Amino acid sequence: MEIKRPLLLISNDDGYQAKGINSLIEMLADYGDIIVCAPESACSGMACAFSATTPLRLRLREKREGVEIWSCNGTPVDCVKMALAEIVPRKPDMVIGGINHGDNASVNVHYSGTMGVTLEGCMKYIPSVAFSLCDHQEDADFEPLRPLIRQITERVLEDGLPLGVCLNVNFPLVPIYKGVKICRMAKGTWGNEVVKCHHLRGYDYWWMVGSYTNDEPDAEDTDNWALTHGYVAITPTQIDVTAYSALEKIRSWNL
Fold it and tell me: What is the rounded CA–CA span in Å between residue 15 and residue 180?
């Protein structure tokens, strides 16, 4: 009987040409067959958005032994949905988002297209992981991530993950990691998010920018603290966002 190699479905929000996703393909090529379906261009901040009114297109960009690379004109979540519906020959053993250029710690998990990939895989009951590096440069050095990315991928392939739980893995931009912290998401806020500009033709327009603030900088059990202090942050993230601690209080309203 033929033994099937693991099937890895990979996507991102930086686009199929990005160095991060191509580094990831190279790092994991010996672990199984890889199918990539990633956006045609950068889709940062798309979170779990999908295209409800825009027709989608797929394009095969490259095919070599063990690797297929496809692009889609939609969002990161569109890429996962399209791959599962139209490209993969069977249910993937893992869905992987990344490697993202820039971190996805704290509340960024709610905005991130990389996490959108991972949450979509998780909602399909596929073990799913997101990898991000705290470096927005196009030519970022992803080589230091290789050992841990391979180790985490191998462990998830062997052991799986609890249903409804995925992993958000963030790497600090430091020469040598101090270690790994399994931690919670920090409480943080974005401010100064809108910048107003005036066009020479007489109308106003706005850029979405902003600055992030860690609202609990001294809490040592958070992803922000880990990254700030040179540790790799692994945050188990769940689909169920029910506030269980508030259930009884809201029930007491007797509505």
Answer: 28
Determine if the peptide bond prior to 34 is cis (ω within 30°).
Answer: no
Neighbour count for residue 206 (Cβ, 10 Å):
10
Q: What is the topology classification, in CATH, of domain 7-184+217-251?
A: Stationary-phase Survival Protein Sure Homolog; Chain: A, (3.40.1210)
DSSP-assigned beta bridge partners for residue 36? 10, 69
Q: For residue 33, give both structure tokens.
A: 């067959």
Contacts of 29-32 spanning 24+ positions with Cβ under 8 A: 29/66, 29/67, 31/6, 31/150, 31/153, 31/154, 31/157, 32/5, 32/6, 32/7, 32/8, 32/66, 32/93, 32/157
φ/ψ of 161, rounded to 5, equals: -135, 155
Distance between CA atoms of 106 and 114, rounded to whole angstroms? 14
Q: What is the pLDDT of residues 62-117, one digit of tens each?
A: 999 999 999 999 999 999 999 999 999 999 999 999 999 999 999 999 999 999 99
pTM to 2 decimal places: 0.95
Which residue in the block uniquely carries the two structure tokens 């850029």? 207
Report d(CA 66, CA 110) in Å as an integer.
Answer: 33
